[in-house]
Amino acid sequence: MQNALKEIQRLLWNPKRNYQKSRRAGTMERWVLIQSRISGCGSLMDVGCSSGHLTSLAAGFGLVAIGFEANWAVLSEARKRLKPYLSLGFVHFVVTPETVALLPACDVVLCLSVYHQWHAKFGPAGAQQILRTLGAKARKRLFFEPPSKQSKYGSNPPDFTDRDERTIVAYNCGMLGELFGTENVEYLGGTRASRSESLRYLFTIQTAS
Hints:
This protein has about 210 residues and is of the alpha/beta class. The chain has helices at about 1-10, 20, 25-35, 55-60, 70-80, 115-135, 165-180; strands at about 45, 65-70, 90, 105-110, 140-145, 185-190, 200-205. The relative contact order is 0.14.
């Protein structure tokens, strides 16, 4: 049992794990959708930035962009590899329902392919608390991308059908609508992900009054 637990931990916390590297096409597709909604914004926070590709694209677009990542190895690689900008930075930060309040406010907040990890660790209520706080940090827009497989969420997954756009969009629009108001939630579309999840689906929430 102990060896099995160690193997699971190794797979979950592989220091070389970099999901953005395996979905470069999807990352650019996401950026096109995000860029279309951030005209007039000046700052961006990427929570769970991984290797920092989107964070760097935002800095190149003219935003003050900062990425927060819990994985030291991935974060170190991002700092070494990416072209430095005065307006680009990366910070090691572990998000919990308690620590999320310490993050700064920005015009735009990205919460992409990380929410399910909080759901698995803190449960639905804890994950939604984090998301609600991130929405409060976003002065103009919050972008949200969940996985399209229930197994990513741990032992208490949301009610949708794996890889089924209709049920995934319906569930997440409903969840986001309860947190931020249905009128503020917009579904932007699917982007390429991985072999097990051909697409993941991107949403944006308008937070400016």
